[in-house]
């Protein structure tokens, strides 16, 4: 009977992942691949399987804790190690035969990969397919990216193997259980043979311990998921170096990921057999290691787990040393036709709104790294700002909030932001940094419009139409954009041109239970007030019910943010880039107005127009506001 440690395996580079369920208890007997804990990230939940069979001796984690790759989960008692030692000489020929036959019994099988549990969501859009037919993927590699109205999520591969067939494409909508792809996996009887060899180890444990004091051992490339001809991008040691068990000795890179190969034991490097640029496969010689005395050979499973836990350390240090300087060289002059980047980099680019085809890659084999992405954002901020903005962080180009201990002042709660709240915050910061914004204020006399609207209110309600001031505002803004096309543009990334749009889609900011969302009403300039009222009502209802799809929130030309009856006399709305204008609407109020003879009560609506000063001049904004006021003040003009 021997004890082994099971650790957190490769979880796609995620750190501080929350444990939401522990599926076993001390004393339980578990099998290989049986789920032991369930982790949850902001993208998905994942079951962590046991890498070996045995009896649970102790559990090192609990629900609610956060873990990272390589952290200890539990200690397991593995049966059959010592008990089989006395019988080994009698049964010696049989294990040799089975060991010889093991490699010959390998076979391939096809596994169908389906959409896992995605929180009950249905008809979720596929926004990215990360693999192609013929690709080799590792268990846990991202294969597709889905996006709901609340969040985007990467779907990982449940197996290691080769992509035989892909059943979906970008733009498809899928639900739980839908087919994604077919994966050809390799299965063999090597694992049972390994167990038999392990049972034989105690038989020669004494000689092994004796030779460990000064023996030279060959360190070879371990199991790397069946990949062949993998490039060596870094050799981390040299002859004469002392290494500790688990230290990185080389770094390999496939077209899917980079991986560090750790030293299986502590000792001194006698010779290195490979160099940067070489191509290696499983079993190739890496180096000769003079093993230190007294070190015990770790079990295969923990060693493999340590191999997957190493990559999170060294790249950080090297990234800090080699972070690219902030200059315009981080931006490509022309979009690249082929973009090579990992899932984590692509997710960060989506959150920051960066077009990866414009980012200059500096990673091995033309891959875009997170540092390249950060350099691009810094260069973009530097380009539009006349001077460096104070308080800008050196990491991502966005301001950071300093850590503070508020609990010393009184009782507090720490509440995690929802995904949509985090995305909104990032977009607001980016827009505030990138857009040179100006806000103009005015008041529109809507006395006649309100009288007209209230007169039709009862009739419209019988038709199922809720006639609020919003449809009139949308219609008026749409006509103002047709009359003032400078507001219906988007700036190009090259900074030298802009897109003039010939359609008018109006975004409506909605305070939904999930956070601030902006559904888009299309072709508002071609619709009547009644049509707009119906469609806007449907969009707002979908937003409040959290039923919006990504397509419902795309393609906007201009946004209206109305505080309505909430109150306030004015505010400065932030331009929703790549749009160049947004109208803030506050609560209408009755005010005295001079008509040339006397003061009379009039219903006045406060308006706040924010615009991107790179695309819109003050004169353009003044004409837009004057035209808008004329439409709202005389409802008859809306029909022209």
TrEMBL record:
Its cofactor is (R)-lipoate. It comes from the Bacteria. Binds 3 lipoyl cofactors covalently. Its EC number is 2.3.1.12. It catalyses: N(6)-[(R)-dihydrolipoyl]-L-lysyl-[protein] + acetyl-CoA = N(6)-[(R)-S(8)-acetyldihydrolipoyl]-L-lysyl-[protein] + CoA. Residues 204-217, 294-312 have a biased composition (Low complexity). Residues 3-77, 110-184, 216-290 form the Lipoyl-binding domain. Residues 194-203 have a biased composition (Basic and acidic residues). InterPro entries: 2-oxoA_DH_lipoyl-BS, 2-oxoacid_DH_actylTfrase, 2-oxoacid_DH_E2_comp, AcTrfase_Pyrv_DH_cplx, Biotin_lipoyl, CAT-like_dom_sf, E3-bd_dom_sf, PSBD. Pfam families: 2-oxoacid_dh, Biotin_lipoyl, E3_binding. Belongs to the 2-oxoacid dehydrogenase family. Forms a 24-polypeptide structural core with octahedral symmetry. This is Acetyltransferase component of pyruvate dehydrogenase complex. It comes from Marinomonas foliarum. The gene is aceF.
